């Protein structure tokens, strides 16, 4: 963990990133990655004693999470992800942070692990002297984020796991269901 020594570091931008397929630790040549949107599942609460309707969240439940990989060109690795079964990827990011006191910047390491099933692949567009922009869409069922090797988020939809900052948000639910 990077020491701040009392400095106020402001997250600035990605310096660079890479993506590896966890099976065989294969580096994937990728243009960009659209990370999944984390959107809670909700339901409407209404009835006696409530002045209208309230959208309430369902603890630890999330809507579909998609990760989209945008390839610069047609890539063998993109087609390999189409094999039956889950895919497992690790994204590593070097993130710049600005020291508000102006002394210096620091680099913070971010690591994202995700698993899921490929649900779509578009081959892109062929054009002279241009990127094909092939895409792969993954229905993300597992997401785990580390910032400077400190776990900040874990969502495992298939095992009822939801942790924020290492704190288990679904432990009581799993216990009630006999899933310890």
3D architecture notes:
- It is globular and about 65 Å long.
- The chain is mainly beta and about 180 residues long.
- Helices cover about 5% and strands about 55% of the residues.
- Strands 1, 2, 3, 6, 7, 8, 9, 10, 11 and 12 form a ten-stranded antiparallel β-sheet that branches.
- It has helices at about 75-80, 170-175; strands at about 10-20, 25-30, 30-35, 40-45, 55-60, 65-70, 85-100, 105-120, 135-145, 150-155, 160-165, 165-170.
Q: What is the strand tally? A: 12
What is the end-to-end distance? Answer: 31 Å
Number of helices: 2
Strand content: over 45%
Radius of gyration, whole Å: 20 Å
Topology:
Elements: E1 9-21, E2 26-28, E3 32-34, E4 40-46, E5 53-62, E6 66-70, H1 76-80, E7 87-99, E8 105-122, E9 135-147, E10 150-156, E11 161-164, E12 167-168, H2 171-176
Antiparallel strand pairs: 1-2, 1-7, 3-6, 4-5, 6-9, 7-8, 8-9, 9-10, 10-11, 11-12
Features:
180 residues; mainly beta; 10-stranded antiparallel sheet; two-stranded antiparallel sheet; 6% helix; globular
Could you write a compact summary of the structure shown?
With 180 residues, the protein is mainly β.
């Amino acid at each position: 963990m990077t020491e701040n020594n009392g400095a106020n570091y402001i997250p600035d931008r990605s310096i660079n990133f890479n993506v590896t397929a966890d099976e065989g630790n294969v580096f994937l040549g990728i243009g960009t990655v659209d990370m999944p949107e984390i959107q809670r599942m909700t339901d409407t609460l209404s009835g006696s004693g409530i002045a209208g309707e309230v959208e309430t969240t369902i603890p630890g439940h999330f809507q579909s999470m998609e990760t989209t990989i945008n390839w610069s060109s047609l890539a063998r690795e993109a087609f390999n992800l189409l094999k039956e079964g889950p895919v497992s990827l690790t994204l590593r990011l070097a993130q710049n942070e600005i020291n508000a006191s102006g002394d210096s910047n620091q680099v913070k390491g971010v690591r994202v692990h995700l698993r899921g099933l490929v649900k779509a692949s578009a081959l892109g567009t062929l054009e002279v002297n241009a990127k094909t922009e092939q895409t792969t869409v993954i229905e993300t069922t597992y997401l785990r984020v580390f910032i400077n090797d400190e776990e900040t988020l874990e969502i495992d939809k298939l095992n009822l796991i939801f942790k924020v900052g290492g704190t288990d948000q679904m432990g009581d639910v799993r216990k009630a269901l006999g899933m310890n």
